[in-house]
Amino acid sequence: MTLEQSVKHYAKLTPDKAAVITGDETLSYSSLWKRIQEKASLLKGNGLSEGKPHVFISKQDVDFVVTYCAAHHLGGVCVPLESSTPKERQQQILDEVNGKWSNGKCSDILYTTGTTGKAKGVMISTEAWNANAENLIDRLGFTSDLLFIVCGPLNHLGSLSKIYPTLMTGGTLYIMESLKNLNAFFSVFELPFTKFATFLVPSSIRMLLQVASKNLAAVASKIDFIETGAAAITQSDMEALCKVLPHSRLFNTYASTETGIVCSYEFSRYGCVPGLLGKPMKHSSVRIDDQGRVICSGKTLMSGYVNAPELTAQVLINGEIHTSDVGSLDADGMLHLQGRQDDVINVGGYKVNPSEVEEAVSGFDLVADCICIPAQHILLGIVPKLLYVPKQGKEVKPKDIADFLKSRLENYKVPILYEAVDAIKRTYNGKLDRKAYLPAR
Hints:
The protein is α/β, with parallel strands linked by helices. The chain contains 14 helices and 24 strands.
């Protein structure tokens, strides 16, 4: 069944059960299905029909789910945009998706900047969404008695993909604006449910561990699982999370808008290994090419980029997505990720993976956050530079960090330059925003 068919199914099977909850509104499955039908009628009256795009601002509320499902119910193509999208950019996207383009089996168009900085409309089919849902249900174990907390933007894959397995198994969604209000987050666990789960990017996990570990431990018995992804999580943060949540299942997932949900690794069960993302899921396959790049195939892949056949052809080749991620497969067929090709720093002929440096720094107790970037040295040329955020109230000397790293990294990987900063720039989904530190052209 599709997402909309699943809602209709549970509207008959468990009509009074809560389907979607926000801070001030709860919709049962029967109420949700009724709202979807009403919204579909309204959208149809406004001209939405099969194959036509519906561009709308994404909000973290019940109406998002209603609008999203209603547009699909009519066979429309959902194009959810961030609330901060400028008016001029909204118009550009409207012009692009309302123009001539091959929608094929397209169900959604999700806009992502990726690594090039140029926004791309990623086309995702209903078949891909269903495969993503089955991957997550099979590997993470979504069930009808689960309340899944969504606290990330619903116009991006990380959180949007969780609507599907939750509602397709008859579970309950709780939608939050963000994690900025921790009291609101922890108050969700007071609801009369026995199993809770959520998706948190690594930066959010680190924040919770640093400022709310006691609160997290207090609700540990209620947390069935936490999934992380979108960026690398450090070994120290994995170990700390396992300690705070000793009975919860904790997953590290490999996914992107282009590839869909591909691999996931239960580090709470099998061990905290940085960069280990587990075996491919039910509908996915992974191989490594001669350059060490991760190549993905299977039912979860995008259909292509809107109005960008040349760019699509560079990435989607013979039914496979050629990523910029560098990785390897071990003897058990599990994916290990080393970083991105674009991020590697060439230091006098040596290749430095910045994520390896950042992983090592994460073990230094006095540093709260960091990023390793290339920088110009007056004598040595391009060298690794570490920007770091000292923990509150702590004084951190560059020499102390360097001495710490020398026992953990080869000499050429140890940063030459250091700078203490107030914060590290990150993208909407918690990834280190490396582009923000590149020199202006």
